[in-house]
């Protein structure tokens, strides 16, 4: 067998242009994490979205963040808050006002993604919501978030959920 020398690793070769750069999914995950914190702040402090966005852009390194997605979430969730809360209500055993504010931020973000970003598969939305709750929520908050999103996804993405379960 003749080996092709061009396939061998050469440490002197220049790295590809995107080497070391985070993937789109990593940048989106970072955007969701910052957006969760920003939505929490918006809910608790009642600051304007523009003030919160400006503060987050100054206080955080956005080099590994999908900044446009962060902005879309930060402004999209409050713009659709009423629709989001109406969609969430039948999937909850508590009222919106009784929810932990961190879990509420995660659920609103995830519900917004299910409603507005059909390009993001529902299973990704659920998984990302669970991961956000693990990072920011209470000890078992991720279980609560998982249960709510498992009920919500078939309501908002019926065809996609049915197609996956076949």
TrEMBL record:
Region listing for Disordered, in residue ranges: 1-28
Entry annotated with the keyword Membrane: no
Key words of the record: RNA-binding, Transcription, Transcription antitermination, Transcription regulation
InterPro entries: NusB-like_sf, NusB_fam, NusB_RsmB_TIM44
Basic and acidic residues bias locations: 1-18
GO BP annotations, alphabetical order: DNA-templated transcription termination; transcription antitermination
GO cellular component: cytosol
RNA-binding keyword on record: yes
GO molecular function: RNA binding
Domain NusB/RsmB/TIM44: 29-153
Function: Involved in transcription antitermination. Required for transcription of ribosomal RNA (rRNA) genes. Binds specifically to the boxA antiterminator sequence of the ribosomal RNA (rrn) operons.
Family affiliation: Belongs to the NusB family.
NCBIfam families linked: nusB
Protein name as annotated: Transcription antitermination protein NusB
Organism encoding this protein: Pseudomonas zanjanensis
